[in-house]
Write a structure and sequence with these properties.
single chain; mainly alpha; Arc Repressor Mutant, subunit A; Four Helix Bundle (Hemerythrin (Met), subunit A); 2 domains; 72% helix; globular
Length: 231
């Protein structure tokens, strides 16, 4: 049997932490595409692979069902959900509003240290693009938006933003490996940064909207190409 997961550390004896680890491991495996859409998840098989009892696996699958990452079929088990074009449109409608709000609230709240972090982030992105190491862009993309969210001083906003980014993680990872898309993302980040520095609310809104629209378009085009290649 192919081992897809590391067995939980013996140091994690607490049942709550074990439940969370099983849930988080399964969730990230789905979100990153390690477990592909349409895969049937068998409780007993996963328990063996993860080196745990069936109880935390059962609870994790139930939570993933509530999060709509999987769905349950009677007498079959759980199936990993596919992400549709409608799902992407829906996610981006919400994410755009959240990211715009975070950028707005960062005005007047962002610190010199956070400004420096964004500058370092953009410089790293430039180096990566020159080196052609686009696989590292996903980390910088995440970091950029996290800095702005934290600068908004809203924990709830940061939590929602993280969930929305994670739900399209496998597509973000795939798209940011493509040089022209990675460069477009970096350019979008630069425009957002300059808008925040200008403290112009309309410019902040417009730059974030443009960046989110371009990102959505890139993901939808990637999905279309992927489906055509599989047809």
């Amino acid at each position: 049997m192919k081992q897809r997961f590391k067995s939980p550390s013996s140091k994690k004896a607490n049942s709550n932490s074990l439940r969370e680890q099983v849930y988080n491991d399964l969730r990230m495996a789905i979100l990153t595409g390690k477990i592909v859409s349409g895969t049937r998840l068998v409780e007993s098989t996963l328990a063996v692979e993860m080196g745990v009892s069936r109880t935390p696996v059962r609870e994790a699958l139930h939570k993933l069902d509530l999060e709509e990452l999987v769905h349950s079929i009677p007498r079959v088990g759980y199936i990993v959900n596919d992400m549709t074009e409608y799902d992407i449109e829906d996610l981006f409608s919400v994410r755009t509003a959240i990211e715009q709000l975070a950028a707005r609230w960062s005005l007047g709240r962002i610190t010199p240290k956070e400004i420096e972090k964004i500058e370092n982030n953009l410089e790293k992105a430039d180096r990566i693009l020159k080196e052609g190491s686009t696989k590292k862009m996903i980390g910088l993309d995440t970091e950029f938006h996290e800095i702005i969210c934290k600068a908004s001083r809203s924990k709830r906003l940061c939590q929602i933003s993280q969930i929305l980014r994670e739900h399209m993680l496998k597509f973000r990872m795939a798209c940011l490996h493509i040089p022209e898309i990675a460069k477009r993302a970096r350019d979008g980040h630069f425009e957002i940064f300059k808008a925040i520095q200008s403290k112009n609310l309309q410019r902040v809104d417009d730059s974030m909207l443009r960046h989110m629209s371009e990102t959505k378009k890139d993901i939808l085009n990637y999905m279309k190409t992927l489906r055509e290649n599989l047809a």
